[in-house]
Structures are given as C-alpha cells and as structure tokens.
Design a protein that fits this description.
Blueprint lengths: L1 E2 L7 E2 L1 H22 L8 E5 L6 H17 L3 E5 L6 H8 L7 E6 L1 H9 L11 E10 L1 E6 L7 H10 L5 E4 L2 H14 L4 E4 L3 H10 L4 E5 H10 L2 E6 L26 E8 L4 H15 L2 H8 L4 E2 L4 H21 L6
Parallel strand pairs: 3-4, 3-5, 8-9, 8-10
Antiparallel strand pairs: 1-2, 5-12, 6-12, 6-13, 7-10, 7-11
Helix pairs in contact: 2-9, 4-11
Length: 334
C-alpha cells in the first residue's frame, strides 16, 4: 500500500513492497513464455500462384511434405490461380505477418507483372518478406527441323540473310522476352506470333508454321530427344542440370545472355525475422538434398536456394531486366 501525505515523502509498507515484487516477477516470467512460443505451432498455408498439375505446384507439394517432416508442422498447399498470379500475391500481401501464410510466387508475380499489368494491386518488393528462391527454369532455344541450320551462329547468320522471314512463337511472357533479348543481343529481326500457351506454339513449331520457339525445358526436352525439333542452347547463364549436354547461349558467345523463370517463397511484409530465417534455413536444407534436387531437375527446374537478402536483390534486378526488355519490345501494360 502506498501512502502519501502533503509535505511528506511517500511511505511503503512491507506488504506493498512484497506484493509489487511478486507482480513484477510474475509479469517477467509470463512475457518470455509468451514471446518464445515455438514456431510453427499451427498449420502453415502455402499459397501457390498457379493451378494444380504444373511444375510449380508439384515442386511446392514435394517441398511441403519435406518441410512438414523436418519442422514437425502441418503444411497445407492451396492453389489460387488466375489474373497472372495477382489473386494469390494479393492474398498473401494482405495476410497476417505471422509466418503462417506464405506465397510460392514466380517470375510472373515478382518480375513480369510490374511491366505487363497496369495498376498492379501489390508491390512485389515492399509488400513481402523474401524467404528463399526455390529454383530456376531455363528456356531452350529450339527451331523447326526444316530450318537449314544446326548451331546458334548458323541461326544468326541465316536470320541476318533473311530478315523478317523467320517467325517465333510466344505463348508466355518469358518466351516473348527471352526471344526479344536474343534478337537484341545478336542484331537479328524475327516476327512474333503470339499464342495462348507454349504448348500451342510447339505444335506449330513442329508443323512449320513458326520456325523458332523459346520453350521451357519440361516442354521441349521430350521433343528434342525425339528429334521432332532441334535444340540449340539454354537461356540460363550456365548449363542446366536438367539438360547437361545442352550449352548455354552465353557459352555459345551471346554475351551476358540470361533470362530464366523462377520459383520463390515469400511471406507478408513485417513477418518477424526469426521466422523468416528459420524458414530460409529449413527450405535451404531441403533444396540442398541431392535426391530432392534431382527430382526437381526432372521437371526442368534447377534447385537454387538463396538468402532472404539474395532473393530481394534477385527480384529487384529481374524486375528491372523484364521492364527494360518489355520496353524495348514495345510491350505496354494492359
């Protein structure tokens, strides 16, 4: 009990002092116990920005199984396709930043959309805490069998001798920009033929309606192996583990050429850093596992873990790269 009389100092009774000490001790013990609740202590939602059945979905589900076992957690994979990944990205950006809602995004959500879409309702950089890149997927520069060339230098020479006579297909933004970059760096001129998907473009590549296609490895590799189209080089800076015998375009003399698709994990902005670091560490362990990495390469994806800082730098640089390519190609946001 605290007593105070006018003109005199307050007097503390022994009972009041003891009560105060007990109250302070109780609050001191309670605070750390609450703050140090183990993570994860409830189910984690992994929201995938594309539909079920594709490589991104398959990779996410395998990753979720591994993480659930290593972290002792329940992880639920939820597909939110549509609007070029905007629906999924926006849902995670608005979620509680507690580590229980994560986004498995791609080069579409975190590079391309900033150039392709007007009034993007989320900020790919500031609305998220980057966790780790999961993998990168190279494209394969492929040509129709009737084109009288076998190498990249021969293709460049043939295109320069026949300006505007070679058509290339683009069923994705990646295919369009990868081919635009190839044109820019080699000084050739090709004619773009848009498609709703690269699978449709591949059908016309085989049929000769188009002569060139930059398609993802998972799509193109079976065709190249079967001899229905010719593969010339991959778009990654180095050879892909999925196609170790196929040289990169850089290796073939196209200086600084690199454009790949990527898959990465993000949390909402302001997610506590200890949670971000724990997720980064656990994901890194899975991605560095030889068996898991080999399973990714079968889908045309190379495991490529990063630090959170590394992923942030990657997103910033890729967003700018895609913006420059889109501007050069005359692509306007829609």
């Amino acid at each position: 009990m605290i007593q105070n009389t006018k003109g005199s100092a307050p007097r503390f009774t022994r009972r009041a002092v003891l009560a105060g000490m007990l109250a302070v001790g109780a609050s001191t013990l309670a605070a750390p116990a609450f703050a140090q609740a183990p993570y994860p202590s409830q189910p984690i939602r992994m929201i995938v920005s594309v539909g079920a059945g594709g490589a991104t979905d398959a990779i996410t589900r395998r990753l979720a199984d591994k993480l659930a076992a290593s972290m002792g957690a329940t992880i639920v994979v939820e597909n939110m396709p549509g609007a070029s990944g905007v629906i999924a990205a926006q849902a995670v950006a608005r979620a509680e930043p507690d580590g229980y809602t994560l986004l498995i995004g791609t080069n579409t959500t975190h590079a391309g959309n900033a150039s392709f879409l007007k009034n993007l309702p989320y900020d790919p950089i500031n609305d998220f805490e980057p966790i780790s890149r999961l993998g990168v997927a190279a494209l394969v520069l492929s040509v129709n069998n009737d084109v009288p060339i076998k190498t990249v230098p021969e293709l460049v020479a043939y295109a320069k001798a026949n300006p505007g006579k070679l058509n290339y297909g683009s069923g994705t933004g990646s295919a369009r920009l990868a081919t635009e970059m190839f044109q820019s760096k080699t000084g050739i001129k090709l004619v773009n033929v848009p498609y709703k998907s690269n699978a449709q473009a591949l059908s016309d590549l085989r049929g000769g309606q188009i002569q060139i296609l930059m398609g993802d490895i998972a799509l193109m590799l079976p065709q190249i192996q079967a001899g229905t189209v010719k593969g010339l080089g991959v778009s990654s800076a180095k050879r892909s583990a999925a196609m170790p015998d196929m040289p990169s375009l850089q290796e073939l003399g196209i200086k600084d050429y690199e454009l790949v698709g990527f898959i990465a994990a993000f949390a909402p902005a302001k997610t506590p850093q200890p949670i971000v670091r724990k997720l980064n560490e656990e994901i890194g362990k899975v991605l560095r596992d030889k068996e898991f990495a080999e399973s990714l390469s079968k889908t045309g994806v190379d495991a490529a873990p990063t630090t959170p800082e590394g992923l942030r730098e990657w997103v910033v640089s890729e967003t700018e790269k895609w913006r420059q390519l889109a501007t050069a190609a005359g692509i306007k946001p829609e």
